[in-house]
Amino acid sequence: MIIHGLQKMTLVDYPGKVAAILFTGACNFRCPFCQNASLVLNPGSEPVIEDEEIFSYLKKRKGMLDGVVVTGGEPTVHGDLLDFMKRIKDLGYSVKLDTNGYRPDVLKAAVEGGYADYVAMDIKNSLSSYPETAGVPHIFTSLIQESISYLLENHIPYEFRTTVVHELHSDEDFESIGKMCAGCSNYFLQSYSDRGDIINPIFSSPTAEEMERYIKILRKTIENVSFRDR
To answer: Mean pLDDT across the stretch 37-58?
Structure first.
């Protein structure tokens, strides 16, 4: 598994856990507002953290860290993801997988194999708006629906989350998202902000009024909807 980044501790990225974050490269989406452009578009240009360094750190921090977040890029595009997650699990850590849900087969294998303890799935937009928002013109939205349906079965704790972009999201989109994810455990909205390394830096943050309105729309069908300040 090629890891390009290590955040040694986070108190917010894994609910209820003190965790480290590992960043993989490459992705099967090209979301124009993505804030990890280098990891997505040209991962080969990014530094690589060797396995020995990663697992040495995790061994030393046992008892101080509770969990490990595997994020990207998109982790599920890597064929050795499950083996890598198992190695982390074997150290006694809880593992959170961040995913865009476009590989439901890998998502299911991670959950059913006991390699993932928590899943955070990005919901990019309503299905009709996915091609533009994910940057994939001929996207198979049935794969997104399959991952959503699987997580809604409550196999393990999970959350859905959307990074809200002023130019890409609307009331109608969130009406559709609310129906698609109705009854989910937790839904988080995050406001887009340009922090550099954006694939296409032409977008702007939603207004506070927009965010409040979208939260109210989602709460029609989802009990736990919150704003997450990134």
So the answer is: 95
